[in-house]
Amino acid sequence: MAKERIYELAKELKMPSKDLVKVANQQGMQIKSHMSSVTPEQAQKLRQVAKGNNGQSKKAGKEPVKGQQHGQKNEGHRKNQQKRDGKKTAKVQRDEHKHEQRHNNDNAKKTVQNDNHQKQGHKQHGNQQRNNQNHNGRFGGSLNNNDHNGRNRFNKKNKKRNKKHNKGNNRLREVKQKQPTQRKDRPLPEVLEYTEGMNAQDLGKILHRSPAEIIKKLFMLGVMINQNQSLDKDTIELLATDYGIDAKEKVEVDVSDIDKMFEDEEKNTDHLVSRPPVVTVMGHVDHGKTTLLDKLRHSHITEHEAGGITQEIGAYQVHYKDNLITFLDTPGHAAFTEMRARGANITDITVLVVAADDGVMPQTVEAIHHAQAAKTPIIVAVNKIDKPGANPERVVEELAKYNLIPEDWGGDTIFVNISAKFGKNIDELLDMIQLQAEMMELKANPDQNGAGSVVEARLDQGKGSVATVLVQQGTLHVGDPIVVGNTYGRVRTMTNENGRRIKEATPSTPVEITGLNAVPEAGDRFVVFDDEKTARAAGEKRAEHAQEEEWKRTSHVTLDNLFATMKEGQMKTLPLIIKADVQGSVEALSQSLQKIKVDGVRVDIIHQAVGAINESDVTLAEASNAVIIGFNVRPTPSAQSLADSTNIDIRLHRVIYNAIDEVEKAMKGMLEPVYKEETIGQVEVRQLYKASKVGTIAGGMVTTGKITRDSKVRLVRDGVVVYEGELGSLKRFKDDVKEVKAGFECGLTIENYNDIKEKDVIEAYQMKEVPVK
Ligand SMILES: Nc1nc2c(ncn2[C@@H]2O[C@H](COP(=O)(O)OP(=O)(O)OP(=O)(O)O)[C@@H](O)[C@H]2O)c(=O)[nH]1
């Protein structure tokens, strides 16, 4: 036979589940709740025990008069009976439970209560079902009890309370009496669709029943609740079972979970068609990434770059032999590592540029690791083969260490020798990219809602938020309601890499979109929604959540710093706020600044964002004692005046290196100065004078250097340092002087020290600050 649930058994035995749980546990069964199950043998045992109890309560009910007359005696009798049984019975449990439920402010109550129970039991015995008897016994007992107490013992206040109580009980009685009419109510639903945490009122609405009825039903099942109390899953399911209907938990769709939506869209395998590969070019600084991308694009980005770092991050498509290849123009500086790592996630193929005259360098290795971690195949472009010092073979040898082995050597990595500058073998490289793409069978479904990732985002004075996104699935249309990271909106305009307005973008197409309510972050995902209202709700919820996280993080960081400072012993932090024109620069600066190594000081970036320096940045800087670094942005006039009045330091830069350099210098300046002792002169003691008020005065000759009033002194006797301390006074004849040079006589005292002897040498020294390197 199948296992039985406690609540089912309790129903059969017409007793509250809670009581049956207690009984079961007393029987040594380890039962947690009414939802627990018991074996058929255990169920049988419980039936027996419970029936025994019922018999007992009947017996108790048969002695009402006696009980009424000799309340105390009857109590004693029952206690004895319990003792005889050697264990608490279900009935006793119930009675105990009743006691808990009642007002427990009267010691004498116990007797009366018991008395009343018996009375009630007797009253109802003939005309009520047993389960109702239990139930009414509770309320009835309580009612009578209160009446009784109210008449005999309670003060006015208690009377009032009792009245209230009675009213409640009467109401319940009414409910009971009205039950037949209620059955004519609207029928119960076939399935109770619920969410965890619903209360009796919510459930009442779904079940077309009054909350009071629900409360009562649960009460009968041993669950005491009020109508506003949130109910857990088990209780709601228990209630549904009691009504004889199924319960089903409603699965709430979290519209703000765009990652899940993105994955769902990605998993969709309907109507898949080939899509262009997305290629990222990576490599060490100066190995020729920009030159290669330029060559492919036939434009010249390098000339516009401030400070030599690729600061514009974009993406474009190249037409080659009737096919398209999408290139992500990721930056090459080590500071952009983080973004490059993100870039690799939306990348199908990595082209690793290695200069043939330079070989494998640290960032080459870094790029390999990122590509391998993202499991994207690597095509090696050995660049600068036109150079006299070029040694492509060496590059092949060096890369073998990183598992990049050419086919000739038995591996499967494609190597192409190129000259980006002179356009040599560029077509061959594109052929190889297409070959690799074909092997990968890259596909997507253009017929579904668009989904993809942000490559770059910035704030444009005229256009507002501008984001370069890569469509990875579906088709993105102008007018689409969209959620991008923590921002939302409707795609207002879509522009391709040539600045041309387009209406739709299919998979692997990079486009610049406008129409978002705020600036998203590079690497953020986007999904298209069916309607703007939901998109807005999802976007707002995400923004709210992000804000909460930001608050948490900020307070966390402060705490972390506190601990770190304590642990690392007076470690200093330089709090910074970074504002820049594009997300790429924000991250580049942030990464570089955090990498600055100055012993004893570290950078703490408390806020970083795209956009002009505003008042809230200044307020934050003031509260955190931070410096604001602006890169290619300026403060708003109000922010500037606030900064002026609060003395907040705003540093504006147009070249990343300068910003980094300035911060590094500031950090060095922040260090506790390091002092070195520097001897400035010596005095030979020739005569001694004792003055009662000032102690020992030494008269002597400055033999080398000088002695100054603020010198520290060291008393040396026969080459041994006898005392170190401060100078007490310095005189020439009777006058106090600031310093005495070599060749002149002087008189001096040493503070708190009088044991000076003739021929002692007094060495004068100062602590000199040593500049930090
Ligand atoms: N001779 C020769 N020079 C090249 C070649 N490719 C690039 N260069 C030169 O190498 C230098 C660096 O090239 P970039 O394209 O700026 O290198 P990068 O890897 O993009 O550098 P970052 O953007 O700073 O990371 C430039 O002076 C280029 O003209 C090539 O194939 N042959």
Verbal overview:
The protein has 773 residues and is an alpha+beta fold. The chain has 23 helices and 32 strands. Helix 2 (17-26) crosses helix 6 and helix 5 (71-85) packs across helix 7. The relative contact order is 0.05. Bound molecules: guanosine-5'-triphosphate (GTP).
Question: What features would you highlight for this structure?
Answer:
773 residues, alpha+beta, Arc Repressor Mutant, subunit A, Rossmann fold, extended, binds guanosine-5'-triphosphate, GTP binding, Transl_B-barrel_sf, nucleotide-binding
At the fold tier of CATH, the topology name of the largest domain is: Rossmann fold
| Low-pLDDT segments, ≥5 res | 55-182, 299-313, 332-344, 553-571
Q: Can you tell me the CATH superfamily of the largest domain?
A: P-loop containing nucleotide triphosphate hydrolases
For the largest sheet, list the strands in their spatial order.
Answer: 7-8-6-9-10-11
Estimate the mean pLDDT confidence: 75
By secondary-structure content and strand pairing, the structural class works out as: alpha+beta
Classify the helix fraction into a percent range: 40-55%
Q: Tally the structural domains.
A: 6
Q: What is the CATH architecture assignment of the largest domain?
A: 3-Layer(aba) Sandwich
Distance between the termini: 84 Å
For the secondary structure, the number of strands is: 32
Spatial extent as radius of gyration? 43 Å
What are the bound molecules?
guanosine-5'-triphosphate
Q: What sort of overall outline do the alpha carbons produce when their principal axes are compared? A: extended
Q: How much strand?
A: 25-35%
Number of helices: 23
